[in-house]
């Protein structure tokens, strides 16, 4: 049996070959060209390594559905090039990769800069909803809205060529890779772990960033022990493009002062100093549970099996969305709490988490069963779940047509009305 290899990333080097390596990580929907204005100055001191996310900038379209997987691909690429230790600056999703490096691979990282980043990017529902829109409408709606998210209004109006470049950059991204990257951001949440980031960190944000703005930046600075904040006035989310000189100056100052690698003249390689001893930091408190649930009447542990509740809660959130699950759990009381735990543990932990069918197939089965039973309230959120699980509106239509034959035309007629409304709400891009 052949071993599956982790695919490498598309990359380029700039700068002197014997200089220490500084990596620049891109944001979702961009390419390494977002750093073009920083490269001339940075290459005076560093060998700059830039990479493209999968399916971005013509890179091979191997989707990666988690920040951990993207980080693993970056490390595989660097290992193949013999790069062991480096500085890292990343924007948005690229910043998430930087935090992942600091937490899981601290021996590789000398210094860190997080730009337009956050320990949690919005909500999981927002990014999975974006995936539904792309799966249904393609990337054009997202591409047309990108300048409004990335730039201030004045910059977008004054720089039409850059605005059009941004639109085309998103439009030419592979949709499947874009959706997978949305899933990576949806599942990224390192808020409880920030205290373990042990490298000097610059947190840089545009003052007018409406995506991951100064509030998120301050959360990073408050959580990371050795971090400082820089707010760039007159800039929005893609601050390296909108205010290139300010960002370049901040990066040069940070990496020049917070990272001073030594070189072995006999080998031409960077010598890695021993890591300084740091005081042990108390782990930050874990967030309180959303609702207190009474223990189930039947305990899986009593039957000698691992409790599937946690796995079920994770699957339930991924399929139905955090907002829906939060409402259901928050409304649980002494009367309904056992039922909510039953549903989470057995429907989601025991059945939906089984490997025999993928989630698309399980959504097809569920939609059909709900049509047959006339359960229109549940059909609403399971139509939404089917879109999140990868079914297109056309495929949902085919499921309902098939159900009309075996479950009855009146039942399917009601189901079509419900599903049509949900699909219209879920697949219409919001400005």
What does this protein look like?
The protein has about 425 residues and is an alpha/beta fold. The protein is about 50% helix and about 10% strand. The chain contains 18 helices and nine strands. It has helices at about 40, 65-80, 95-105, 125-135, 140-150, 155-160, 160-170, 175-185, 215-225, 240, 245-260, 310-320, 320-330, 335-350, 360-375, 375-390, 395-405, 410-425; strands spanning about 10-15, 20-25, 45-50, 85-90, 110-115, 200-205, 225-230, 260-265, 270. It has a seven-stranded mixed beta sheet with strand order 1-3-2-4-5-6-7, with helices on both faces. Strands 8-9 form a two-stranded antiparallel ribbon. Helix 9 links the parallel strand 6 (about 200-205) and strand 7 (about 225-230). Helix 17 packs antiparallel against helix 18 (about 410-425). It is elongated, with a radius of gyration of 24 Å. The N and C termini lie far apart (about 50 Å). Mean pLDDT is about 90; it is low at about 260-305.
Decide which structural class fits the backbone.
alpha/beta
Question: DSSP strand (E) fraction?
Answer: 5-15%
- Topology as H/E string? EEHEHEHEHHHHHEHEHHEEHHHHHHH
What global shape is seen? Answer: elongated
Radius of gyration: 24 Å
Number of strands: 9
Helix content: 40-55%
Poorly predicted tracts of residues: 260-303
> Taking all residues together, what is the mean pLDDT?
88
Strand arrangement within the widest β-sheet reads: 1-3-2-4-5-6-7
Main β-sheet, in a few words?
Answer: 7 strands, mixed
Give the N-terminus to C-terminus distance in angstroms: 49 Å
